[in-house]
Amino acid sequence: MKKHVVPVSEIGRARRVAAPERAVPATGVLLDRLSRPLTDLRISVTDRCNFRCSYCMPKEVFDKDYQYLPHSALLSFEEITRLARIFATHGVHKIRLTGGEPLLRKNLEVLVEQLAAIRTPQGAPLDLTLTTNGSLLARKAEALKAAGLNRVTVSLDGLDDTVFRSMNDVDFPVAQVLAGIDAAHAAGLGPIKVNMVVKRGTNEQEILPMVRRFRGTGVVLRFIEYMDVGATNGWRMDEVLPSAEVVARIAEEFPLAPLEASAPGETAQRWAYRDGGGEIGVISSVTQAFCHDCSRARLSTEGKLYLCLFASSGHDLRPLLRGDADDAQITSAIGHIWQGRSDRYSELRALRGPDTDAAAPRRVEMSYIGG
Ligand code: SAM
Ligand code: SF4
Ligand code: SF4
Question: Residue 328: how many CB atoms within 10 A of its CB?
């Protein structure tokens, strides 16, 4: 049955941000209402994708009638860079480009070059990364590295070609993604992370083959719990394979020891192979919420700022960018927005269960604000 088609412009509801009356100058540390600093910005550069992963952009919703954003609505590279520079003055030191599929955005390396020139208030370059499905990586890796990209994260849900083709739902062969990972490695875009979303009953049998393939290669494999993001993927708790079970299955064949988090606010819990074969990570957003130190903001393709992956509305910064607001006013506007933040959906889900209230505002889609 075909599901109701919801244009992205309706999903991404937003409050129009006006230049605030009270100035919030940048001090390099911006805290929200739960004392969480803003350090990490994810920027979506397109709402389009060449895959149709059922947990993200199911075919029956994202079909030929689906209305994507028109090009004129997208932030230009100059607008994105201006915002990124302002975010850096507030303490953002890590930027991840995402989507949709970010490598579908034309000339992305030009944006990377502009972002790579930004410095933190301490004079350091930003940590600049990109999450991709890997389909175009073999072609793009060298240019991205030359433009100043530091690292890539590649999403890969299995090694078995039949499983992979059915999960991306466009019959895309796994060999091309593996070639993309090799190209990223050769270009020096490491350490490479490979993210696998685990769906019970769909690709759980791929966990151990993935471990065997990437152990000892320097690639950090991370297992992500299937999440109830957006409103279109038909999420069910019984399809979530808890990370604890993933770790237990791997440890049976390869004993593991827990590692300390490498940075505050890190989403993954890290484990080392006891025999020195490297490390893995698990991202347990369903079974072990990590909202207490969530320092991430998300900027949508057309300039809406989202304070949580599970938000139903964003703060529209584009009128400020395209109006006559100066940098100080935009700095204050972002300061106000973050200072008002109290989002902690995953913690509340753990207390109350998933938000299944049909009357609740519709949550934004992952393909629209990125992972
Ligand atoms: N297209 C790129 C990709 O797939 O890497 C970037 C955008 S994608 C939305 C970012 C990440 O979100 C991917 O690693 C993807 O696996 C993950 N993701 C999407 N839907 C998810 C869900 N329902 N649960 C967990 N992770 C999800
Ligand atoms: Fe596309 Fe990434 Fe979503 Fe898959 S997870 S549909 S590759 S945006
Ligand atoms: Fe951050 Fe929201 Fe995820 Fe909690 S649910 S970790 S606040 S994005």
Answer: 14
